[in-house]
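Thread: Modeling a multi-component assembly for a lab meeting

Hi all, long-time lurker, first post. My supervisor asked me to bring a structural picture of a complex we are working on to next week's group meeting, and I have zero experience with this. I have the sequence lines for every component (499 residues in total). Could someone generate the structure of the whole assembly? Inputs are pasted exactly as I received them:
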Amino acid sequence: MNSTVKPKISGKYDFVVVSNRLPVDRVIEADGSASWARSPGGLVTALEPVMRQNDGAWIGWGGQPDLEFTPFESEGIHVVPVALSAADLKYYYEGFSNDTLWPLYHDVIAPPSFHREWWESYVEVNQRFADAAAAAASPGGVVWVQDYQLQLVPKLLREIRPDLTIGFFNHIPFPPYGIYSQLPWRTQIIEGLLGADVIGFQRVADASNFQRAVRRLKGYVTKGSQVEVPLVDMSPGVRVFGEIKRQGSFRTVVARAFPISIDASSFEELARTPAIQERAKQIREELGSPKTIMLGVDRLDYTKGIGHRLKAYGELLAEGKLSSEDVTLVQVANPSRERVQAYIELRDEIELTVGRINGDYGTIAHVPISYQHHGFPREEMVALYLAADVMLVTALRDGMNLVAKEYVACRFDDDGVLVLSEFAGASDELKRALLINPHDIDGMKEKIMEAIGMPKRDRAARMRSMRKRVLEHDVSRWSADFLKVLESRAHHGSQGHLL
Ligand code: GDG
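Re: Modeling a multi-component assembly
Sure thing. I ran the full set together rather than chain by chain. Output:
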């Protein structure tokens, strides 16, 4: 750490992760007693080894409103719960995060709502997370902030603790400037993010969109993946490149793509388990042994293009190109954000469509869609992936889409066809999928038919190439790549401190 920098507060953890939700869930037993259970996610799997090696802490909300919890240890991770009130949840989380930023960042598929009181709550909650991180991180430590709910944390944290090296990763897309500029607080968010040393995005296009917003709103110079942030900010009236240059002193922020991935080998391992393979066979039998099983696995979210997928499938059934005797679509629609109006309406729309398709094209023995509005244990998900001849990922906009990668990781038999939207980040890597534009219903129908009829050799060749990519670029490689760049900023950044 630079000896001239005196942190106002500091803790003892060299590596701190900050995310809206903790990687543990509060579980209430039947007898009323409560405990914490690890929620299995790629992020925690990837960061666990780093956490253990570096004395790590994880800061986030515990999942229940109006409850304060004291920090505790969970399997080698120091967990620091941040309290959120019912009002915080309504304004910061369901409001600004999920009804302003989420639709705006996903190409305004649904109209974003702009409310000043939601923004105020977002600022306040971001400050709370920043304060918690400032209190937990050791002098010169590394803090990695996750996702769109916490975009102000990098700047707020840097203000309290200029000694820290700060990373930020955006799990969802960053929109083109024409859309982003609708946000009344567009400049504050850019300033918030630029408090980080390294800002990671899913796709190259997301990083370019961000850099353009930086140039348009702040007038800063960007060179390749670097943004030059003047150490003394300019007043709005003198935002001129030459002026900034004359001042001469700036810190560089790296803004580039780091496509996230999954714990691929653990998915493959599960898929190779005899009991799960047996379950995959059983699923086919329970569905009446159709020739083709198609599968969709999504949070019930308007970004996932479930309605477009059903439209294409419904038309293929109507035209007699498919029949419910031969094909079943299993659609897992995991309940999500059930108190946000757009999600309430989406559920009604989807369920009406499913009911119509099943009513119009089903027989007593065969329903065209097996619709599951609930989550499944991971083992069952893997069995579904193994049972699925065709996997449908038809997102209208998606940061990455891990489901696509999970399907590929599970198919050690080199079989199965992935139909993948070009609007999902995964399409940058999984180029041998059957790529579709989900808005083009006829095009999607053609690709579905091509997937169903694809010869085994083609299926195997495509799957092998996609598996190579996913297994080589797994989530631990993702976190290692990000942290390597972050660490290099600690060595070379303007603060001059070391890890
Ligand atoms: C955001 C971005 C980005 C789903 N249903 C069940 C279940 N899942 C698991 C899947 C997958 C995860 O949830 C969903 O991840 P996605 O990537 O598909 O989508 P989002 O939730 O929207 O995630 C996205 C991601 O962040 C990571 O950066 O890829 O673009 O929107 O892992 O398997 N898991 C189990 N049962 C279910 O019923 N066990």
